[in-house]
Amino acid sequence: MRIVLVGFTCMVTFFALNSDASIYKMVENAYKVTLVGAFVPLVCGLYWKRATNLGGTLAVIFGLTVWIGMELFQPDGLMPPQLAGLIASFTGMIVGSLAVKGFGPQAAH
Q1: Are the beta carbons of 63 and 88 closer than 8 angstroms?
Q2: How far apart are CA 91 and CA 55, in angstroms?
Q3: 50 and 97 in contact (C-beta within 8 Å)?
Q4: What pLDDT sits at residue 29?
Q5: How far is 61 from 5, CA to CA, in rounded Å?
Q6: For 26, 58, 62, 93, which has the most beta carbons within 10 A of its beta carbon?
Q7: What is the pLDDT of residue 78?
Q8: CA–CA distance, 88 with 91 (Å, rounded to integer)
């Protein structure tokens, strides 16, 4: 874990020193990643009893994929990329959590 922390710190420091973006823009971009990748699994894990590990994993994958795809390939889209990523993240959580319904321990009864 310490190796990951040191490696991540080095990468962030390198990015900050070689970027021409303002600190405001860098913080804004950091919160976009958190919004599309971590917000939905956290909220659903806390408040939705049917949330599962598969739902959380799909939420992260769907949210990040849609957000990065829209950032790269549709800069002037109809909706902000982070909003599309958030919607995709909720979709992944719902699909992944409800998909395992028939495969759990209750299905054997």
Answers
A1: yes
A2: 9
A3: yes
A4: 86
A5: 22
A6: 93
A7: 85
A8: 5
